[in-house]
């Protein structure tokens, strides 16, 4: 089969289109013929050698490695001990995360059956492949954590805040993969949503249900907004702390990518900062799948590239301002 592999770390040019053996499923696994692959930030973190992660949080891996975690495809073979999945089933999933052993940039992938859900019949493989990591990140931050594994970035377990009609949620990076799912899930729960993104995304985010839009290239959200109940910062990082001043006392901030916060400041403001690390979860993905099937939540596709053109997909990602998801298609 053909697969994209990394033999060394570096820029998009190190992604190589190789011939490799088709893997065989072990206990608890199925073989999936891949139709589409979602592209996610951990794919380029791996390509770069995980240099942006603290050394103690870096998963172990060895080169050459096939990147990728998200897929949509069709079950080709099933281990004898697997129940609930059959040859011919259309499935989607986030594989083996937070390890980097998903290996989805390939024509065939072996997947733990517990990481998969049946693909919603109402959407195609491209849209299904765009959902797992970004959708489960939004779900585990906002709706239900779904596991008791500790986060490598904080001692306390993350606890989502119950969302409802009396809540105002600010979402920074609202047009990206996690952001556009978070916006739709918050609206599903009845919250009022303030979306922060660049101006080009305003009509897209209002279509998804944003009640208010802030173009961060023209205004500073932290100077315009006050007394919100929850900030979900899908960008995160060192600048995330600027959103603390938008929160009311008792409010919470969820940085998706770990940030730098002063505990003294958060105590003084009376706010909570908490996050988690997304984990594979087929059962939660099935719940999200029902919302996708009903049209309650939709997957926006920024662009698609053939698997052989993974380099171009990573170059697109590096340019930023992504609206929804980048997806690789497998012939």
UniProtKB/TrEMBL annotation:
Residues 10-328 form the Enoyl reductase (ER) domain. SUPFAM superfamilies: GroES-like, NAD(P)-binding Rossmann-fold domains. CDD domains: MDR_like_2. Coiled coil: none annotated. One of its GO terms (molecular function) is oxidoreductase activity. InterPro entries: ADH-like_N, ER, GroES-like_sf, Lipid_raft_assoc_Zn_ADH, NAD(P)-bd_dom_sf, Quin_OxRdtase/zeta-crystal_CS. It comes from the Bacteria. This is Dehydrogenase. The lineage of its organism: Bacteria, Bacillati, Actinomycetota, Actinomycetes, Kitasatosporales.
